[in-house]
Design goal:
The structure is a single chain. This protein is mainly alpha-helical and about 120 residues long. It has six helices and two strands. The protein has a two-stranded antiparallel sheet. β1 and β2 form a beta hairpin. The protein is elongated and about 45 Å long. The two termini are about 15 Å apart.
Length: about 120
C-alpha cells in the first residue's frame, strides 16, 4: 500500500483497509448493546487479567499501522499510541479499571483520528 499524499483519492486497497479498520474498531468498542451501552470485545476480553488488555492493545495497533500507511504524521500516530496506552493502563487496575475500560473507547477514538485526517486532506470517506 502506497503512502497517500494530499488531495489524492484512496486506492481500492486503501479503501478496503479503511473498511477493515472500521469493522475492527466496532468489534473492539461497540459490537454489542448491553443496557443501551455499546460494549465491545476490548472490555469483555479485558476482564482476563493482563492477557486481555495486552491482546486488545495489540489488535489496536492495526489502526496505528494503517495511519502510517496512509502517510499520517508522527503526532497523529503518537496520539493514537497514547490512546492505546491509556486504555491498556486503565485496564490493568483491578475491577475499577475493567469498569472504566468499557467507557474509554480507544479504538473508536483512533478510527476518528484517521477519518478526520483524511477529511482534512479533502478525501471523502
Amino acid at each position: 500500500m502506497e503512502i497517500l499524499g494530499p488531495e489524492e483519492t484512496l486506492t481500492p486497497e486503501q479503501e478496503q483497509a479503511l473498511q477493515q479498520a472500521r469493522a475492527l474498531s466496532r468489534l473492539l468498542d461497540d459490537q454489542f448493546q448491553i443496557a443501551g451501552f455499546g460494549v465491545g470485545l476490548d472490555g469483555i476480553i479485558g476482564l482476563i487479567p493482563g492477557v486481555g488488555d495486552a491482546f486488545t492493545t495489540a489488535m489496536g495497533a492495526y489502526h496505528v499501522s494503517l495511519a502510517n500507511k496512509l502517510g499520517m504524521g508522527w503526532s497523529t500516530r503518537m496520539q493514537m499510541i497514547g490512546n492505546l496506552g491509556l486504555d491498556f493502563v486503565i485496564g490493568l487496575v483491578p475491577l475499577l479499571g475493567d469498569f472504566l475500560d468499557f467507557g474509554f473507547k480507544s479504538h473508536r477514538r483512533n478510527m476518528r483520528l484517521i477519518e478526520k485526517k483524511l477529511e482534512k486532506r479533502g478525501i471523502r470517506i
